[in-house]
Amino acid sequence: MEISKKCIVLYVLWLGINTLFFNDSLAVAADKENCLMCHKHRFNARIDENGRKRNYHVNENLYSHSVHRNISCRDCHTYITKIPHDPVTLKVNCANQCHIRPPFAQEKFSHRKIVDLYKNSVHGGKPEDSEILQKALPNCKFCHLNPLYSKISEKRVSYKETLARCNNCHPQSGVEMAYKHITHRLRKKTSRSSREIVQLCGKCHGDKNLMQKLNVSKKAMDAVESYNRSVHGKLVQLGSQKAANCINCHASSALHDINKADNPGSTISKDKIMNTCRQCHKNTDEMFVDIAVHPDITHAGNPIIKMISLSLGLGMYGSVLALVGLLLLETVGRRKDGARLVLKKGTTWYGKQKSVSGKKK
């Protein structure tokens, strides 16, 4: 009897552990039409006509903890009209309205406003774009991977910035109700860090072969390298969350309105760049704006800046080399006078010198 009780206890423990860590069946996902009956299987895949493997497996546990966990499958896959469905030939349209009706809103939620901003931005495809450019432009899923929520420090989330982002989709009316609805952003965050944003943008803009095919300017070709040389880039590489990343300068709080500098609506246009810099630098003036955010180490076409840069470089490195030379001369002189250098627990000299300032002791 004792053995049977122990076996039952062990079996229950094993079943609990297996359920929690290896089984997705207890995870609650928006699957009213039982799509996971097929898509829950890990090896649900096929080889398409181009020889690429297409995986159709959906991990219910991961999905139920993502930002889209309350979205029904067919709210995005609207072209599916029967189950089992025919082979999928259409892409998901992120501008579709979802079944969710947010608090204080008069209509169903939609990404339509964000999609319109994206289409009008430099990343939105235009009919006149070349085939190479159309293929290179990032779509929604290139940046947004249905991320999981992660807790962060409240100090990293600004109240004004949070509310400004919420207003991209939600009406400004009902502020109190809106605040109650979005306060989870003070505890949970899905956005990338500054370092991750730079890495994401660098996947395309740092690919010089791709940039050459797109016939971009020399400045655009070196944009990633020049940013990494700047004070902003170096601080971000060191882990700073306050230094400006690509989005901070090239987009507003809407995030998707990235445009070239010659576009009047761009945050880096002649009329708006000063306000963009003032987000961090309160005392920004016209002289401050003229400072190169993407510094060019060649200084082509400007001999004055080149000479000043060369002089400053010689002064800095010359000072360092002079100090090293003085240290070496002093070390050689003291050793000749009989003193010895000790490097244990710091640097010190011991022993009596034969002379001090040319006089014998």
Describe the fold and architecture.
This protein is mainly α. The protein folds into three domains: 92 residues, no CATH class; 203 residues, no CATH class; 47 residues, no CATH class. The chain is built from 18 helices and eight strands. A two-stranded antiparallel ribbon has the order 1-2. The protein has a two-stranded antiparallel sheet with strand order 3-4. Helix 13 packs across helix 14. The longest helix has 34 residues. The radius of gyration is 30 Å and the shape is extended. About 2% of the residues have low confidence.
Q: Which labels suit this protein?
A:
3 domains, single chain, 361 residues, two-stranded antiparallel sheet
Short note summarizing the structure:
The chain is mostly helical and 361 residues long.
SSE series: HHEEHHHHHEHHEHHHHHHHHHEEEE
- Number of folding domains? 3
Q: What helical percentage do the residues reach?
A: 40-55%
β-strand percent reads: 5-15%
What low-confidence regions span 5 or more consecutive residues with pLDDT below 50?
A: 20-28
Query: What class, by secondary structure content?
Result: mainly alpha
> What is the CA-CA span between the terminal residues?
96 Å
On the 0-100 scale, what is the average pLDDT?
77
Can you tell me the overall shape? extended
The largest sheet is:
2 strands, antiparallel
What Rg is obtained from the alpha carbons, in whole angstroms?
A: 30 Å
What is the count of DSSP helices, taking H or I runs of 4+ residues? 18
What is the number of beta strands?
A: 8
Strand order in the sheet with the most strands: 1-2
